[in-house]
Amino acid sequence: MKSRIGLSLALLLGLTPLCSQAGGGAEMAPAHRYEHSLHTISLAQAEALLAEGNVYFFDVNTLELWAEGYIPGAVYFNVDNWKTLLPEDKAARMVFYCANRLCNASEIAAHQVMKLGYTNVMQMHDGIYGWRLSGRAIEKP
């Protein structure tokens, strides 16, 4: 029975066009490479920066996640006019975060900011879920 299911599955996959499998529709190409390397930081490093002050935290989550709580003092970044939220000082310390390690919205935002010439840009890859699960303080709108 198992061999019949395996054979059926192999035949089905063999008859399915490659474009309908994972990665769907597009031609195969190398993964996108950013021109800037991104400095990722841990929860502890982000907490230390927050305690020091003089750092901008940008939350790149959805409004629903933002409403559940954000890092104290963070600015909601997922808006159309996000460039107006950036500090004038291109050397200002900035930390971007989204939900967790599976979310790449903060990575994309950080790279976009770096393209504008900002030099002290960091990403906290554990995101707000990691922050909350670790018991760190949050604020709510």
**End-to-end separation:** 57 Å
Largest sheet: 5 strands, parallel
Radius of gyration: 20 Å
- The total count of strands amounts to 5
| Uncertain stretches | 6-13, 15-22
Shape: globular
- Which structural class do the helices and strands define? alpha/beta
Helix/strand order, N-terminal first: HEHEHEEHEH
Strand content: 5-15%
Overall residue-averaged pLDDT value: 85
**What is the tally of helical segments?**
5
How are the secondary structure elements laid out?
Blueprint (H helix, E strand, L loop, with lengths): L1 H14 L23 E3 L1 H10 L3 E4 L3 H6 L6 E2 L17 E4 L7 H11 L5 E4 L2 H7 L8
Parallel strand pairs: 1-5, 2-3, 2-4, 4-5
Short description:
34% of the residues lie in helices and 12% in strands. With 141 residues, it is α/β, with parallel strands linked by helices.
Tags for this model:
alpha/beta; single chain; 5 helices; 5 strands; 141 residues; five-stranded parallel sheet
Question: Would you kindly provide a written description of the structure presented here, covering whatever features stand out?
Answer:
- The protein is of the alpha/beta class and 141 residues long.
- It has helices spanning 2-15, 43-52, 63-68, 105-115, 127-133; strands at residues 39-41, 56-59, 75-76, 94-97, 121-124.
- β4 (94-97), α4 and β5 form a beta-alpha-beta unit.
- Mean pLDDT is 85; it is low at 6-13 and 15-22.
